[in-house]
Amino acid sequence: MIKALAYQIEQWENAELCGVIVGTGAGKAFCAGGDVSSVIELSTSDATRPEAVDFFRREYGLDYFLANLSKPYVAIMDWDNLYVSSFGGGFGLVAPAPFRVATENCLISMPETKIGLFPDVGASYYLSRLDGQLGTYLALTGTPLAGRAAFEHGLATHYIPSARVPMLLESLAALEKPTYAQVNEAIEDLYHDKEPTDPIPPLSGPIRIALDTAFSQDTVEDIVATLNTFTTGDQGSDQRSPTSLKLALVTIRKGKLLDLLECFKMELGIATAFCVRSLADSPVYDQLTAPLA
Question: What pairing do the DSSP bridges indicate for beta strands 158-159 and 21-23?
């Protein structure tokens, strides 16, 4: 799938008749995630381990290619469920788009800490640049953002009702040699103002203050301890990998100081370490353990 996407997008990038590249989902997902079990299986054998590493290399290469397209790229997040998983790269396919259009059907999540991995596909770059500590919170917890909240919290650049998506596609198709300004105007023309009855953003007010306070801490242990000061009673068992939480935190902190290519190089080093099961042997180990600049 990665090879097919890369080939097709390159054709569109070089086609004179293609003015805008649009990514949409089919059925219930934009990208439901890759075949995690196959990658894990490949990584267990010395003979096939290079194939597992090559998967990540190709995936990140596609994501970086999308971030450097010369033509406007519009990702329309309108489906029953967008489950953004590192192995499929749903987030990696959407995040590079300068125009990320959410509808009420949008659902975005980075659940890697729940499956023992780490937020990759450029997450160390994109999430680290969200307002306050929102990106740190999303990276560590995998909490999904749905509908308009994806727009109001910065994961989407625009919001339109799902019923207006066909109108948007028609408007984009009618543009000849479109500029970024023209594409933006076409999307803005279909914007739907927030209704008084719409729910407030879920991560706002006192909740947001608590999250920014807790997730600004320098260690996972301090984050948990600070969170406990805002809660009472039994919070249930933690279903996230401790190693993944620590890696998520350090990559978000480091990623804020790096450009996109440097973030992908860091993530590829960590993904390679996951395949060989030795972070200490990773080419980015020294980078991860060095003090923040």
Answer: unpaired
- In the block, which residue shows the tokens 């290469």? 61
Name the catalytic one among 63, 120, 152, 267: 120
- What pLDDT score was predicted for residue 126? 96
Cβ atoms of residues 65 and 23 within 8 Å: no
Of 89, 90, 122, 147, catalytic: 89
Between the CA atoms of 233, 215, 261 and 143, what dihedral angle is there, to the nearest 10 degrees? 30
The whole-model pTM stands at 0.90
Element (H, E) at 222: helix 220-229
What's the whole-number average pLDDT of the chain? 88
* Catalytic residue check, 89: yes
Per residue in 230-268, pLDDT (tens digit) is 876 555 447 888 999 999 999 999 999 999 999 999 999
Calculate the alpha carbon distances from 206 to 98, 104, 190, 201, 234 in Å. Answer: 31, 25, 32, 12, 21
- Identify the structural domains of the chain with CATH numbers, from first to last: 2-192+201-229+237-280 (3.90.226.10)
SS3 108: strand
HSE-up of residue 212 (Cα within 13 Å, Cβ side): 10
Among residues 23, 25, 34, 269, the one annotated as catalytic is: 34
112 is catalytic: yes
13 is an active site residue: no
List of residues 6+ apart from 175 with CB closer than 8 A: 19, 20, 182, 183, 186
Question: Is 34 a catalytic site residue?
Answer: yes
Say which amino acid occupies 168: L
